[in-house]
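> example.struct
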């Protein structure tokens, strides 16, 4: 500031200086010194501005607020491939150009964040008109949005859809449906000036965002995702977020697919159940083959399926009629309660049979580890989790025989239940990847079920009621 006659005067208090800045800015809207002389300027006269739709004395052709509109290559220009005719492609009057620059700065400072490693803008869209008191009300909402964001940064909350601390999604749920939101996901490679729109989602309603958060909370409230073993004997709850989807579709290699799934979720479009299960098993098989732990990956996969099921966004899921009614038994009630909790995914005998065989398999492997000093040779019989009907039916008697050999078959009622489900199992209704997924899920959740069975030769036997993860 400059102090003059006892008053501080700032840059904006010097009209001649600010007019000079405005002139330089305006010159950039129609001039490019690096172009050939004939194409250095692009100015239209007495035509319609693309932004305000009003007839203006001048419109400029190089008013590219974001670099996704390009005029560097003559082939992109209409009017005979002449860049000086760029005003015909995208005519912008000076007043609108200033508004665009100010709007861009506002969005970058107040409505931008990161989404699983991808930059995005949230663009509010109101039903209000653009004049008078309604415009003031819109500005008041934008100011309110900014204040709420500042408050959210001070709060330590787990109720987020991503790992970004400053995401705006939960704030958006606080508005009524008179305010919609557009989401623009973009890429701007470091320092190049390039700007690529990766995905643009229009008209996301606050009420639907509330449904998304409700589905997230329902998933996290399921027993399967609570009290999981963490580091240093701590417990944690698996929180649902889009980062779980990104774990199976890493942005580096699967950005397009990840964004397609994101688009479908926010746009309320169906997502292929088959595609998801195929990808889940691709990741899980690779880890299983490399002797890496898969228990958390399976829970993440099941959390994603439950989340999408709550939003009614899954398709291509063949549902078979469940013909088997399990007789109440203290030993078996735990299975029935589990299947009822996740009934959308265990609606057929074949899925229950495959899942329970996975449980039985993990019990055998646990016994093998004890009997053979940590070795699990039976794991080689699982074909790297590339399973089908033939392998599933071949494995069942082999598991039973091994348990008998170890004199540790405490699971005869479970084997009886598996056999009953096999009798009416329709393997034609399930893909091989689904077979592998449900089998692996059974192995993963085996420790959720306790088994106590009397044997008159050995007394009461129990395989252990702990919930340690392998």
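> example.seq
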């Amino acid at each position: 500031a400059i102090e003059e006659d006892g008053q501080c005067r700032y840059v904006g208090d010097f009209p001649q200086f600010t007019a000079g800045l405005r002139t330089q800015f305006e010159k950039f809207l129609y001039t490019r010194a690096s172009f050939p002389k004939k194409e250095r300027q692009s100015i239209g006269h007495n035509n319609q501005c693309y932004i305000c739709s009003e007839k203006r004395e001048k419109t400029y052709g190089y008013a590219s607020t974001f670099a996704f509109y390009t005029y560097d290559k003559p082939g992109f220009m209409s009017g005979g491939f002449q860049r000086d005719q760029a005003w015909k492609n995208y005519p912008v009057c000076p007043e609108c150009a200033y508004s665009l620059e100010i709007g861009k700065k506002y969005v970058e400072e107040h409505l931008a964040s990161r989404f699983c490693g991808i930059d995005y803008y949230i663009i509010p869209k109101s039903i209000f008109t653009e004049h008078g008191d309604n415009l003031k009300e819109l500005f008041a909402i934008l100011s309110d949005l900014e204040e709420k964001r500042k408050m959210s940064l001070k709060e330590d909350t787990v109720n987020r859809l991503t790992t970004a601390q400053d995401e705006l999604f939960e704030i958006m749920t606080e508005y009524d449906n008179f305010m919609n939101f557009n989401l623009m996901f973009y890429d701007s490679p470091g320092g190049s000036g390039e700007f690529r729109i990766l995905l643009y989602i229009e008209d996301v309603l606050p009420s639907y965002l509330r449904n998304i958060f409700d589905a997230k909370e329902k998933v996290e409230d399921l027993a399967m995702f609570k009290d999981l073993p963490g580091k240093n004997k701590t417990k944690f709850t698996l929180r649902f977020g889009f980062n779980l989807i990104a774990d199976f579709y890493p942005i580096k290699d699967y950005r397009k697919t990840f964004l397609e799934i994101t688009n479908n979720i926010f746009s309320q479009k169906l997502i292929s159940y088959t595609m998801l299960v195929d990808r889940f098993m691709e990741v899980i098989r690779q880890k299983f083959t490399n002797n890496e732990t898969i228990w958390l990956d399976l829970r993440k996969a099941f959390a994603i399926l439950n989340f999408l099921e709550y939003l009614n966004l899954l398709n291509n899921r063949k549902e078979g009629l469940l013909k088997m009614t399990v007789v109440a038994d203290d030993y078996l009630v735990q299975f029935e309660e589990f299947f009822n909790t996740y009934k959308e995914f265990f609606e057929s005998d074949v899925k229950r049979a495959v899942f329970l065989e996975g449980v039985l398999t993990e019990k055998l492997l646990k016994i093998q580890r004890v009997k053979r000093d940590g070795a699990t040779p039976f794991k080689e019989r699982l074909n790297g989790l590339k399973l089908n009907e033939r392998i599933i039916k071949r494995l069942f008697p082999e598991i039973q025989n091994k348990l008998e050999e170890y004199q540790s078959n405490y699971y005869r009622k479970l084997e009886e239940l598996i056999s009953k489900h096999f009798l009416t199992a329709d393997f034609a209704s399930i893909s091989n990847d689904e077979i592998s997924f449900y089998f692996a899920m059974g192995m993963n959740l085996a420790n959720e079920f306790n088994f106590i069975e009397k044997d008159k030769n050995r007394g009461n036997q129990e395989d252990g009621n702990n919930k340690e993860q392998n």
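> remarks
The mean pLDDT is 84.
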